[in-house]
Amino acid sequence: MVDRDVILAERQFLVKILQGLTNKQWRGDTLCAGWTVEDLAAHLIVRERGSILARAGIMLPFLHDYHDGAIKNMKQMSHVDMIERLSHPPGWVKRLSYNVVEFYVHNEDILRGDLKQARVPSDELEWALSGFVMQLGRFAFRRVEGGFWLIIHDESSGSVHEWQVGKKSQNMPELDISAPVGELTLLFMGRGRHARVDVRGSEEAKRLYRLADVGV
Question: What is the pTM of this model?
């Protein structure tokens, strides 16, 4: 269970970012391909306040149109109102542990997009993210051709996770990925091109890794 204060702190970090943006920056690109800051903020509101179909459309391709339509509608409100809604979420989402991942990743989507800004995660945030490394990593590497032995070094917590990825074979090649937990989280959430990770291992394992569609 993630401490509620850590979850809320990451939400308030987003709010602080948005409050400091100009109208032009609201229209700037994020790491989410095709999404501006405004699109991303609208997505987060839909995720918490949208209809069941709109929220389901986040994960289910055949319902994407409902999600996209809801984002378009949310963008009709003022930036002040969007910030207000994000500042005061529905009660049922305040204790969702996974929100610490959701908001961390989207905060980085904004900062590392057109804003070209960086941050240093707090120890409390890194501890919270470390609790999701194994779960996110296993799911992120589910689409791999061939197979290799994956070793994940979480430099923030000092923990090491190992598991087989893809098809089992004799003399499976090894891939070793090391990084602070925030960078591992971005990698596992599909931001591999922007995650600062150290990748080592056999040439075959690195080849399979480059070809893989890594991400939740």
Answer: 0.93
